[in-house]
Design a protein that fits this description.
single chain, alpha+beta, UDP-N-acetylmuramoyl-L-alanine:D-glutamate ligase, eight-stranded mixed sheet, 20% strand
Length: 199
């Protein structure tokens, strides 16, 4: 499902795709408008990149696998896609800036999962909401609240907040009912890497 989010009337459309079936056709079609953000899971990323999914739980191998997916996306799709976000349940999440050949990864806190259903949608929705807030306020208020510098891309800030909300979602049986204090605690527990360069 592609979500076309009009952030404000005066700013450009932001296109967030939260899907993977048939997405290759969109990502390589010069007649299609650029997709700003593609959010998928690592298995889906393997499928699109046409490499076998990894069954190994070894952290180093998994990291190398995800980075190789990011590199393939950068080679094939950077003309039509700005950011690739890949999640993997409770394992690290990744954000690749394909045009500028850089990435960040996020190590999630170990928590007792009560209900994982809907976490992906929660993350995407909160990411969209944060991007909207940042575009409407030049991002200063959000950056100050979340202690980010001016060089960090909006999508990276939004993703970390989305991951915190998704983590909070797993702690309850109900959907969409969050305690902001819990989200802030989880946000602080998510370890985010420095900006890394892609090969």
């Amino acid at each position: 499902m592609a979500r076309k989010t009009a952030i404000t009337k005066n700013l450009p459309l932001v296109v967030i795709a939260d899907a993977y079936k048939n997405i290759t056709n969109l990502l390589s079609n010069e007649k299609h408008p650029m997709i700003d953000i593609l959010k998928i899971n690592v298995f889906e990323g393997s499928f699109i990149a046409e490499i076998p999914p990894l069954d190994d739980s070894d952290t180093l191998k998994r990291n190398e696998h995800v980075i190789s997916i990011g590199n393939i996306f950068s080679e094939r799709f950077s003309q039509y896609l700005q950011y690739l976000i890949m999640t993997d349940g409770g394992k690290p999440a990744w954000c690749f800036d394909l045009k500028n050949k850089r990435y960040w990864y996020f190590v999630l806190p170990k928590i007792k999962v009560v209900n994982p259903i809907g976490c992906g949608d929660t993350c995407t929705s909160v990411l969209s909401s944060i991007l909207s807030q940042m575009r409407n306020t030049d991002g200063k208020e959000v950056r100050e609240k979340l202690k980010f510098n001016d060089d960090t891309p909006d999508v990276v800030i939004g993703l970390k907040w989305g991951l915190a909300a998704a983590s909070a979602k797993t702690l309850t049986l109900t959907g969409g009912d969050f305690d902001e204090k819990v989200i802030l605690q989880l946000f602080d527990q998510i370890k985010m890497s420095e900006e890394m360069k892609m090969h």
